């Protein structure tokens, strides 16, 4: 019984750790894009991304971007990684590679 209580408390802690609301995520990702890429890319649409396991925890955000010529590309998966000190992409997505693919179509 104690093991179940410990596991449930641990899962509650883990599930609360990565939750970020959509408004905060959007504004922070916009600031990250402006800082890293200037005004080249803008957020076209964004939604939360959840794990596919049993617990369905929020992993980050699924973002579609566009450039100044309205070339839309994505999804790009963003995660705020406290160990690497900010926003990173995950799931095999890369902003520049996805943008180059979209431009070549």
Task: Characterise this structure.
- The chain is α+β, with helices and mostly antiparallel strands and 105 residues long.
- It has three helices and four strands.
- It has helices spanning 2-17, 22-37, 95-104; strands at residues 42-50, 58-66, 72-81, 86-90.
- Strands 1-2-3-4 form a four-stranded antiparallel sheet.
- A hairpin with a 7-residue loop joins strand 1 and strand 2.
- The longest helix is centred in the N-terminal third of the chain and has 16 residues, at 2-17.
Overall pLDDT level = 86
**Main β-sheet description:** 4 strands, antiparallel
Rg, alpha carbons: 16 Å
The portion of residues forming beta strands comes to 25-35%
Low-confidence stretches: none
What is the H/E string?
Answer: HHEEEEH
What portion of residues is helical? 40-55%
Given the structure, what is the number of helices? Answer: 3
Q: How do the strands of the widest beta sheet line up side by side?
A: 1-2-3-4
Structural class: alpha+beta
First-residue to last-residue Cα separation = 58 Å
**Oligomer status:** single chain
Shape: elongated
Count all strands and give the number: 4
Provide a compact summary of the structure.
By secondary structure, this protein is of the alpha+beta class. The chain has helices spanning 2-17, 22-37, 95-104, and strands at 42-50, 58-66, 72-81, 86-90.
Helices, strands, pairings?
Layout: H1 2-17, H2 22-37, E1 42-50, E2 58-66, E3 72-81, E4 86-90, H3 95-104
Keyphrases for this structure?
alpha+beta; about 40% helix; about 30% strand; about 100 residues; elongated; 4-stranded antiparallel β-sheet
